Amino acid sequence: MSAATPSAPLHVVLGTGPAGTTLAEELLRQGFRVRTVDRSGRGGLPGAEAVAADLGSPVAAREAVAGAEVVYHCVNVAYELQVEVMPALQKVIVDAAAAAGARLVVMDTLYPYGPSGGVPLTEDAPWRATSRKGRMRAQLDRAYLAAHDAGRLPVVLGRAADFYGPRVLNSTLGGTTFPAALTGGTALALGSLDLPHSFTYIGDVARGLARLGQEPDAYGKAWHLPTAPAPTVREVLALVRERAGVPFETEVLAEPRPWGPFDEAFMAEYAELFYQHTEAQTMVSDAFERRFGMTPTPLADGIGATVEWYREWLVEQGAAVGAGEGTA
């Protein structure tokens, strides 16, 4: 990790979930001054400045990003609050970043595209969201790009498919998969095991967002962050089983219903997005890879690293973890 000099540009990461924390680590490795911002101020990393701020407050947000060259919006909002909270949060963050004279990099999703009928998704795919959250995300993205076009501040969007990787718990390839794989339990799969489904490694999310933060000429549009070719869910689970080296069962939910950590409240909100698991969802990141010369982490390598992270995490939680025979 390169030590930042006092004169190094300041990069401010809003949100300290898996994406924000992994991004902050990547920026520190690259020698930038890094400030992380969350409600508690306890989400910082060694070498980063940790700030507590309520980003719903215009005054607090401006103070949190003061002096930034680049601001990264990685704030996550609970599913049941997204439609209500995210538009107001967007306005505050855009205003704060503009006041700081900063560039804004937004961590984005595939929701604006809506159902694709299984057609691979490129950056040129039409936005046909049918869900409340998808339509809301599309409206936000249009507003971000309008702020860029109006000259208020440079804005770029980095889109990813479902996350997986170290620290990623709340994902369809996260806490309902890897603990079961390592303890011989039952893993969850949604929709169909035999449909292709893209998963973006959290390390590639971080590398991609960090790169966008340094590429002002690439702003004013959405980019698909580096993502390995889409496997079927069955193929993903086979890799998990190989790397974990422990037999486990799989339960497939053909329709949204509560299961394990995905309680009734969550599934009620997620139901409108369940189409992602009943049709092929393939995100194509060729444009990003060509433009920036950055290739995605091979799925086998990403799964291996994720299994090892979960193995250590489960031991910390006091779980009985199988020794396993796989390799990372």
Could you characterize the architecture of this molecule?
The chain is globular and about 55 Å long. The mean pLDDT is about 95. The strands form three sheets. A seven-stranded parallel β-sheet has the order 3-2-1-4-5-6-10, sandwiched between helices. It has a two-stranded parallel ribbon with strand order 7-9. A two-stranded parallel sheet has the order 8-11. About 35% of the residues lie in helices and about 15% in strands. The chain is built from ten helices and eleven strands. One of its GO terms (cellular component) is cytoplasm. This is Epimerase. GO terms for molecular function: aldehyde dehydrogenase (NAD+) activity. It comes from Streptomyces paromomycinus (Streptomyces rimosus subsp. paromomycinus).
Largest sheet: 7 strands, parallel
The radius of gyration over CA amounts to 19 Å
| Named CATH topology of the largest domain | Rossmann fold
H/E series = EHEEHEHEHEEHEEHEHEHHH
Number of strands: 11
CATH architecture of the largest domain, by name, is 3-Layer(aba) Sandwich
Which shape, going by the Cα principal axes?
globular
Number of helical segments?
10
Sheet-strand content, in percent, reads: 5-15%
Q: Write down the CATH class of the largest domain.
A: Alpha Beta
The CATH superfamily title of the largest domain: NAD(P)-binding Rossmann-like Domain
Percent in helix: 25-40%
Q: Largest sheet, order of strands side by side?
A: 3-2-1-4-5-6-10
Span between termini: 23 Å
Q: What is the count of structural domains?
A: 2
Structural class: alpha/beta
Mean pLDDT: 93
Unreliable residue stretches: none
